[in-house]
Amino acid sequence: MLPVRGLPEFTAGDDLAAAVAGAAPWLADADVVVVTSKVVSKVEGRVVPVPPGADREAVRQRAIDEETVRVVARRGPLKIVETRHGWVVAAAGIDASNVPGDSLVLLPADADASARGLRDRLRELLGVEVAVVVSDTFGRTWREGLTDVAVGSAGITALTDHRGAVDSHGNRLETTQTAVVDEVASAADLVKGKLDGVPVAVVRGLPFAAPAEDTGTRPLVRLGPGDLFPYGSRDLVASRQPAADLVPRDGDREAVAEAFRVASAALPEFPVVLRHGGEGDGVVDVHLPQRAATTGERIAAALNLGALLGAVVVQLHAEGWATRWEPVGTQGGSSLVGRLWLGSPRD
To answer: Residues in domain Coenzyme F420:L-glutamate ligase-like (predicted)?
Structure first.
């Protein structure tokens, strides 16, 4: 891992490739050039200005919302969100460190395209065939500490699939896929560091495969059926209010209906039908399939209905409502019956 030192402070419109070529004329074929996403974003103008006198945190929260496709988890001001790129990351990857106080840096709009452009330009300037990885710092679920991962790549296979191969003991590998570009990004960060002002490093001597079709980092995105944790979580604080005080007033019914609309739109397709009342009605009907369903379909419907109600509770909590689920009993010996108590934020 070789640091590329002597690079300038980048601004919008700068020629990043020319700066790298000037600072590292020793680049050779089969090197992997790792560039932090922050400098890519700066030269591409992916910067949000903070107006004089404005609350920087308020500006940051608005920027996070604008870059967010889905809120996965939230605790206080911290949000773990899915970005339009498909990354699930804290604060939508918006960086407030190592930048002046009057600006914030977003993730590149398309870091794979940025990596391809940088690779082509380095070939033009130095005549070398290198791979390029655009890195960013992510946290890890269930593990403390940060590490760099790839958010863009070109000229290198992002994911090496070992499934179907046989190990030295004769065991067939069923799930092993190596995120090569993530490992490269993390290795390069050992010489870039977080406080040293070195945004570019070169990994040399790594044998890697060039993809037949350069899909960049898209194979790393795990969404849809492969996402085992699609619903995320938010802090739910148990209400200490008496049940009698948790009944919503007529004027709050539309807020409850809106919570159902937001929750149902955020969840995957499921066999539960929602009917919302007219404008201002605030009525929400929830129907299971009318036809005789199989046991599996009924279980799926029940699980998804539970997920929907949980998402509604989450949405209402986010808006300052007090909620409480009160089990009542069973119906027909098999169905759990309960009552959802709601308290308006005005209470």
So the answer is: 7-205
